[in-house]
Amino acid sequence: MATIERHVTKQLVALDAMTACREAAKMMSEKKIGSVAVREGGRIVGVVTERDLVDRVLAAGDSGAMPIGEAMRTDLPRLRLDSSEAECAELMRTHFTRHLLVEDKGHVVGIISMRDVIQLMLDDKQFLIEQLQTYIDGR
C-alpha cells in the first residue's frame, strides 16, 4: 500500500494566528486553495479551512475580523508522513475534514487534502490496471 508522502503539499501557506479571517479568505481565493496553516510563535499549530470560515465565522455573524487562531478547529489529528491513503481517508471521514497537517519527527512538514488522497488512490488503481493488463497480455 502506498504512503501519502509523494502527495503531501510541502509548500505550506501559513498565516499568523492573529490574522483576520477576512485576510485568510482573501489569500485562499487568490491562491485557489481550501486551507491555510496557522502559525503561532513560529510554529504551525493548526489549519483553518473554508468550512471553518463558513461555520465558525460567517454563520456565527462575525464580520471576518475574528483571528484565524480562534476560527480553526483544535481537535484535528495529524498524520505521519508514512501514513497510508486509507489511514488518511479514514481520519478525514471520522473528523469531517478535507485537510490534515502532516508531520515528520514531530514537525509539520506539509498538508494533504482530500483531492490529494483521491489522486493517490486513482494513481494506485491505474498502476494495478497496467500490471494486470501486462500479465493478461503475457508480456
Describe what this molecule looks like in 3D.
This protein has 139 residues and is of the alpha/beta class. 42% of the residues lie in helices and 22% in strands. It contains five helices and six strands, in the order E-H-E-E-H-H-E-H-E-E-H. It has helices at 21-31, 50-58, 68-71, 85-94, 114-137, and strands at 14-16, 35-40, 43-49, 79-80, 99-104, 107-113. The strands form two sheets. The protein has a three-stranded mixed β-sheet with strand order 1-2-3. Strands 4-5-6 form a three-stranded mixed β-sheet. Strand 5 (99-104) and strand 6 (107-113) form a beta hairpin. Helix 4 (85-94) packs antiparallel against helix 5. It is elongated and about 65 Å long. The chain starts with 13 loop residues before the first strand and ends with a helix. The mean pLDDT is 90.
Throw out a few tags for this protein.
single chain; 139 residues; alpha/beta; three-stranded mixed β-sheet; 6 strands
Helical fraction equals 40-55%
Number of strands: 6
Strand order of the largest sheet: 1-2-3
Instruction: List unreliable stretches of 5+ residues.
Output: none
N-to-C order of helices and strands: EHEEHHEHEEH
Largest sheet: 3 strands, mixed
Number of helices: 5
Radius of gyration: 18 Å
CA-based shape: elongated
Quote the distance from N terminus to C terminus: 24 Å
Structural class: alpha/beta
Tell me the quaternary state: single chain
On the 0 to 100 scale, the average pLDDT is 90
Binned strand content: 15-25%
